Amino acid sequence: MKHEAAMNETIDTLLSHRSIRSYSSEPVSDDMLDAIIECAHRAPTSMNAQEISLVVVRDAEKRAKIAALAGGQAWIAQAPVFIAIVIDFHKTQLGLHKAGLTQVIHESMEGYGVAAVDAGIALGKMMTAAQSLGLGIVPIGGIRRNPQDMIDLLGLPPLTFPLVGMCLGHIANDAAQKPRMAMRTFRHDERYDAAGYAQAIDAYDATIMEYWKQIGRSDGLPWSANLAPLKGVYYPQVKPVAARQGLLNDK
Q1: If DSSP codes are grouped into helix, strand and coil, which group holds residue 149?
Q2: Where are the beta strands (DSSP E) in 41-159?
Q3: How would you list the strands of the sheet with 160-169, edge to edge?
Q4: How far apart are the first and last CA of the chain?
Q5: In angstroms, rounded to a whole number, what is the distance separating the alpha carbons of residues 63 and 79?
Q6: CA dist 247 to 108, 160, 177, Å?
Q7: What single DSSP character describes residue 99?
Q8: pLDDT tens-digit profile of 153-205?
Q9: Which of 125, 143, 208, 229 lies 20 to 30 Å (CA to CA) from residue 42?
Q10: Cα–Cα distance between 227 and 87 in angstroms, integer?
């Protein structure tokens, strides 16, 4: 897919993003997987703390269990590779102990926030690397749906938490690129400006309904109605399980 704003192949890849939920049975080669993971390994982390780890799951039975824990997301079982991105303050605590220091950051909002940012950077690196190789991906927030079971399945120690995952594989059926809301609701120059949001939301609700119609999704909702899960906490086990893991967020 070509875009007028594209200036090189990397930007083309980024601008052509779409989430893939249909994968062939063709395995992802070791060379491809290693290259994708190396891109995440080289991603920046705050203060070079490297408080992110990956758990790569290729075992079909385990992927099926992850799919069920994530709320019945069949594409997790279908894709030949699933990668869990894990907040890992267990690793940093070992480093601090070696230096004769006591770790506190895992008890703070700052710690959880910075780890979430770094996990997102790692995810973005892997997404771009995979898509540049012609592979399909879809991020999976559903690994937080049943976090304790996910922790047990992945064998995660205290001070860690499975934050987000990614399906990876060769594309069976490609997906149409979903339209986005007007750029003015995303880019703010110099200061935040919400003027025009109401009109932009009305316009996007109409645009997304046309998109659902074009791809044959009779159950598609307007963007505003699709936000309904935000009226509550849709993964309520995140806070108590993270606290049991030692990620208290009370500082």
Answers
A1: helix
A2: 52-57, 81-88, 136-140
A3: 52-57, 81-88, 160-169, 136-140
A4: 46
A5: 9
A6: 7, 8, 37
A7: T
A8: 999 999 999 999 999 999 999 999 999 999 999 999 999 999 999 999 999 99
A9: 143
A10: 27
Beta bridge partners of 57: 82
Q: Is the pTM of this model over 0.85?
A: yes
Mean pLDDT score of the chain: 96
Supply the pLDDT for residue 1: 43
Structure tokens of 133?
A: 């190789």
The residues with which 78 forms a beta bridge, in sequence order, are none
Of 127, 118, 146, the residue nearest 234 (C-alpha): 146
- Residues paired with 88 in a beta bridge: 160
Instruction: Return the number of other C-beta atoms located less than 10 Å from residue 49's C-beta.
Output: 17
Encode pLDDT of 30-87 as tens digits.
999 999 999 999 999 999 999 999 999 999 999 999 999 999 999 999 999 999 999 9
Range of the domain at 149: 1-176
Q: Pick the last residue of a domain from 139, 155, 176.
A: 176
Q: Compute the distance between CA of residue 206 and CA of residue 223 in angstroms, rounded to an integer.
A: 9
CATH number of the domain residue 137 falls in: 3.40.109.10
